Amino acid sequence: MLRIHRTGRESFRVTAYQQFPSQTMEPSLTWTSQYQKYFDSEKGVTEYHTAESEFTDDSVIQPMRQLEQFFASGSVKGDTLVLYGFATNIHLLFPACAYFKEITIMDFLDTGLQYVENWLKNHPKAFDWTQCFKSIQGDEDQREKWIANEEKLRKAITIKNIIKLELSESGPVAPKSFPLVDCLLSPYALAVVCKDKACFISTLKNMSCLLKVGGHLILFLFIQCTYAYIGGFKLPVLCIEDDFVKNVLNEQGFVIKEARLNPRINQTKISVMDFSHILFLVALKVKNLK
Fold first, then answer.
1. Which class for 26: exposed (0-12), middle (13-18), buried (19 or more C-beta within 10 A)?
2. Could you give the count of Cα atoms lying within 13 Å of 119 in the half-sphere of its Cβ?
3. In this structure, how many other beta carbons lie within 10 angstroms of the beta carbon of residue 289?
4. How far apart are CA 220 and CA 186, in angstroms?
5. pLDDT per residue over 13-50, tens digit each?
6. How far lies 97's CA from each of 33, 72, 149, 219, in Å?
């Protein structure tokens, strides 16, 4: 039976605006409070994961194809995977579901947990991935495979846990008692919720404690990004370079197996989100650090 764990801070209400307000953040709020108050996961998936948003090539097609290639290579060995961060990126589990027996989803926002619950129940409010895939130009067999994988994942008992993470001022906090896993997939969240590089390092170190030695860490990260608009609010993003990420991983007991710096495909809507590249990185955990 699926277990949904809600720990950490209480839920919050998100206020939506039809136009970008001139003052998008409240100086009196802490970094984490800003995200708890303003980040609407369901608006995020609608605004960044549809063909109409013009981000689909960057946020859906390319990452799914890269994951398919990586998992099909046989590089990952093991049965367990954690999706860590934004649960709205559940589409990245569609290529993974054939390779893992147990999947856990960890998010730090109530709207992210609600998104997953709606998706699992095939609720009318759930984001329509089938329609998203059908709108994609190109290989029809590929689209049909993704649609079939979504339904397979929804009906399977592969998703064992949905866990609410605490979001501290130092970043998300991984549960200490959770069994170690074979693969940790974190799409986009680190640069978005970490206020500075020290926070990024702390968060990466904390989340890597979930991973077995010999396990794989898979990251998707926005590069040279400073902001993103979600639901009409301008949210700050930590501006990082790929070399910084690689150096941090090497210092944290990882060996980098693959790193692709993908240039932004669609150059429109820079005013909505200003990333220049997306880093796809796979690293092998070779030792535990004290």
1. exposed
2. 28
3. 11
4. 7
5. 222 323 333 345 555 555 666 667 777 777 888 888 87
6. 33, 12, 7, 17
